[in-house]
Amino acid sequence: MPDPRSPVRLSIAVNGSRMEAEVDPRRTLLDFLREDCALTGPKKGCDHGQCGACTVLLDGKRILSCLKLAISAADRSVTTIEGVEREGGLHPIQQAFLDHDALQCGYCTPGQIMSALEAIADPELRTRPQIQEFMSGNICRCGAYNGIVDAIMDVKANASL
Fold first, then answer.
1. Global pTM?
2. Which of 34, 47, 95, 115 lies in the 20 to 30 Å Cα band around 26?
3. Could you tell me which CATH class the domain 92-158 is placed in?
4. Mind listing the pLDDT tens digit for each residue in 6-30?
């Protein structure tokens, strides 16, 4: 029987580029992204899935990368904040965060933006309370919640995706 700690060959599309590495099967996707891919956008806030700072998109759906084993994302597509830009410029939600003062210290911003991308794409999320509920898994210790919701509502209203 093989040692369950033996490195496993992993191949993941990260921000449109194929990343391959030998990883410990117990390694989280967050650690893989930060340490093997040198992508520091996803943050290690709580490492327990409670703050949302590590949020990334897996096949277009938000996940908490601190709770996901890297090997479970094999042969799938991961998008981090580093892969969000549009044609060398800011994505509309990134610009809306700036326009609506939806950040202060910036620590939570990458995770907030990744969740916001899914919120924008979801036609069922129409009202402020719905968006607030959807975003409740992302904590902002600075209290920029109103600006975050305003930014999402602005992008949804302008259909600038």
1. 0.93
2. 115
3. mainly alpha
4. 999 999 999 999 999 999 999 999 9
